[in-house]
Amino acid sequence: MAVGIFDSGLGGLTVLNAAQSRLPDVDFLYYADSARAPYGVRDAEDIYNLTKAAVADMWDKGCDLVILACNTASAAALRRMQEEGLPEGKRVLGVFVPLIEALTERQWGDNSPPREVEVKHVALFATPATVSSRAFQRELAFRAIGVDVEAQACGGIVDAIEDGDMILAEALVRSHVDALQRKMPEPQAAILGCTHYPLMEKEFQAALGAGVKVFSQGTLVADSLADYLERHPDMKGSGKGGYFTTGDPARVSDRATQFLRREIRFQAA
C-alpha cells in the first residue's frame, strides 16, 4: 500500500514533490489520467465519472488514502464522492482544504460561524471547470465573510505546460493576470488554483506585483497531509509506490522528467 496522489496530468507532480520532501518515509503512488487530460475543459459529470474510476483503480492498486491533486477533480468530484460513501477503510482528500485554511487562518474542523478575515480581495486563477464550479467560493463562504473573490478562467496554461512550451505558458500568465486586474485592480492575495500553476509561480508574482501574496498549493498540501497522517497513522500504508498513467508511458515519463528535472518513469495504469 501507499498514499495515492491523483491528477488528470502532470500538475499533481508539484504536490508529489513537496509531499516526498516533507514525508520521505512515506511511499507514494502517483496516477495521471493523461489519456483524458486536461479535465479543466470537461463538464462536471464527465469529470466526476473519470475521477471516480481513477480513484477506484488506485484503491485496487493498494492505496487506502488518495489525494486529489487536481483542483478540477476536487471541485467537481470530491464532495459528491464523499457524500455517496466510500469503501470501508478508504479516504479521499482534496487540495482546496489547505488553501482555505491558510487564507482564513482556521482549521477545517472549526465549525464556528463565518468571521471577518484580514484579506478582503482575492484573485483566483484556475481552470474553466474549477471556476464554473464555484467550489472555492462556496467553501470559503462557510468560513469567512466579507471576502470578494474574482475568478479568472485560465484557458491554455495547462496545455502549454503539458506540452513543455513554457514561453507560451508565461505569455498566457501575463494575459490572464491582465484580464483579472481589469476586473479587480488591486487584489490583496492570489490563489493559484491549479497544481500546474506552481511551475509558473514566479511569473504570476511578477505580473501581479510584489504587494500581492500568492498562495501556491504544493507546500500547503504537503504540510496538511503530514498533519493528517500524524493523526491517522493507519492511512500511511506500506510497500512500494510508483508512477502510473493511462497515456503513453514513454511520452509521459519524458514530460515528467522535464517537469521535475529528475528522472521519472511511468508505467501503464
Commentary on this structure:
By secondary structure, the chain is of the alpha/beta class. The chain folds into two domains: 3-94 and 218-268, 3-Layer(aba) Sandwich (Rossmann fold); 98-216, Rossmann fold, CATH 3.40.50.1860. The protein is built from eleven helices and twelve strands. The chain has helices at 13-22, 44-60, 71-84, 96-104, 128-133, 135-141, 157-162, 166-183, 201-208, 217-231, 249-260; strands spanning 3-7, 28-32, 65-68, 91-94, 115-116, 121-126, 144-145, 148-153, 189-192, 213-215, 242-245, 267-268. The strands form three sheets. It has a six-stranded parallel β-sheet, sandwiched between helices. A four-stranded parallel β-sheet has the order 8-6-9-10, sandwiched between helices. Helix 1 (13-22) crosses helix 10, helix 2 packs across helix 3 (71-84) and helix 4 packs across helix 10. The chain is globular. The two termini are 16 Å apart.
